[in-house]
Amino acid sequence: GGPGVKNCIADVLPILAKMLENMKAEPLHLCHRLDKETTGVMVLARNKEVAERIRLLFKTRQVEKTYWAISLGEPDPAEGIVEIPIVEKEVKSHQSHYKMTLAPNYRLSPEDGKVVKIRKNRNAESAVTRYRLLASSSACSLLELQPITGVKHQIRVHLAYGLGCPILGDHKYSHWSKLAPQKLPEITLKRLKLEQSKVRHLPLHLHAHRLSLHLGEWIDLVCKPPPFFQKTLKKLELDIDKD
Predict the structure, then answer these.
(1) I need a labelling partner for 136 at 20 to 30 A (CA). Which of 53, 101, 121, 206 fits?
(2) Residue boundaries of the structural domains of the chain
(3) Cα–Cα distance between 138 and 115 in angstroms, integer?
(4) Does the domain spanning 63-236 belong to CATH 3.40.50.300?
(5) Is the omega angle on the peptide bond into residue 110 within 30 degrees of 0, that is, cis?
(6) What is the C-alpha separation between 161 and 230, in angstroms, rounded?
């Protein structure tokens, strides 16, 4: 749900329950959220009590989440942790809009290159993302990501502004000052058989691949990427070992 969301998952919960159980089934309960452009695992509960327990696990960060993303460029180093607070800011341009952005605690002074502590932004939330390069080709990478915290758009912001590797199809976080389609390298366009003028139709390549949670026993939920994501992997020759 949210502003500008036409098809909300909550609207189909009663129908889903009837398909799974029978016509008298009570609606399924939503346990967490995914950004509207993100694909992947969603946890639904059959009754309220279990839903509450699972929501608490998400709230207290006891759910292990693993995402896959196709990014532009290659992160350096190939594996690591991004730990930079995030804050929402208004972008003042001819089309004013809001974006999440980095609010680091330190910066380099332009005068002498010394490290300077920045006054903390009161609204900034601490954000931690673990990342690992799985494959790279065609000026793109396939990354495995584990958000340790759950800040809005955290993975997208940490990749784009922290590592300089925006997610393929993330038109919102590929530029700071404007809302415009992502600019793709020649080799990427060629492999995707795409013209730059059509890039705006490219979907966000961010996928919630696996969720692990403990409800008496460990439950491991895996969801393979949707067809568009798999096709892009093939076209870009991003080969990975199947696990």
Answers:
(1) 101
(2) 63-236
(3) 36
(4) no
(5) no
(6) 26
